[in-house]
Amino acid sequence: MPDVTFERGHTAVLIADFYAEMMDTLPHATGRGVVQKASAIQAAARDAGVMVCYCATVFRPGYPEIGQRNKTFSQRKASGQTAIPNPIDVIHSGVRPHDDEVVVGKHRVNALYGTGLDLALRANDIRDLVILGYATSGVILSTVRYAADLDYNLYVVEDCCSDPDVEVHGFLVDRILPRQADIVQSDDVIQALRTL
After folding, report:
1. How many Cβ atoms from other residues are within 10 Å of residue 99's Cβ?
2. 144: Cβ–Cβ under 8 A, 6 or more apart, which residues?
3. What are the residues facing 129 on neighbouring strands?
4. CB-CB contact of 136 with 20 (8 Å)
5. What's phi and psi for 97, nearest 5 deg?
6. Which pTM was predicted?
7. H-helix or E-strand containing 131?
8. How far apart are CA 193 and CA 46, in angstroms?
9. Helical pair 186-194 and 34-47, crossing angle rounded to 10 deg
10. Bond into 38 cis (ω within 30)
11. Under DSSP, is residue 155 helix (H, G, I), strand (E, B) or coil?
């Protein structure tokens, strides 16, 4: 386990795809207290004056952002589900954003692709990015790979991430994500935030 230290004024926390629907029903999330741990990180970050950001996948009515070639989202478009355009409407109440915090709606898996998140992070001179969310095999993996190419120092909070497939989660945090991020636990992140 790496020693967790953050740089004052250059650290942000990203609470990624904390959908109320999934975080309240997914055994991998509910059984490990993921929402409660994420809420504790959120509170510690706010107390430390650290930037807290959020993302959620949303679409406009009619799903104009989804084309037929998009294997990930084309089924959602075809399902007839009502599109939800506002990311705040789908974020779990346990980690509800404050009005002055950055919230981006995304149309792809990666939180940095096609959103204003990278712009907001760079505008605030962020170098250390702490990531937590659902799913480990979705937004976490995609965002970490992309953010690593943008040269962020990355920290994935393992006990604040969940996935429908527990084995995939384990494989990613043990074998794949450590190539580009430090894998950390919520208690260590909270302790590091308190020292800022």
Report:
1. 6
2. 131, 154, 156, 177, 180, 181
3. 12, 154
4. no
5. -70, 150
6. 0.97
7. strand 128-134
8. 9
9. 10
10. no
11. strand
Question: For residue 159, which amino acid is it?
Answer: D
pLDDT at 80: 86
Domain ranges within the chain, ordered by starting residue: 11-194
Whether the Cβ atoms of residue 144 and residue 180 lie closer than 8 Å to each other: yes
Report the distance separating Cα 112 and Cα 102, nearest Å: 13
User: 1: pLDDT confidence band, cut at 50, 70 and 90?
Assistant: low
Q: Which amino acid is at 186?
A: S
- State the CB neighbour count (10 A cutoff) for residue 5: 12
The number of residues making up the chain comes to: 196
128-134, strands of its sheet edge to edge: 102-106, 51-57, 11-16, 128-134, 153-162, 182-184
Average pLDDT over residues 2-23: 94
* CA-wise closest residue to 50 among 176, 155, 165, 184: 155
| CA separation for the pair 28, 140 (Å, rounded) | 15
Provide CATH code, domain 11-194. 3.40.50.850
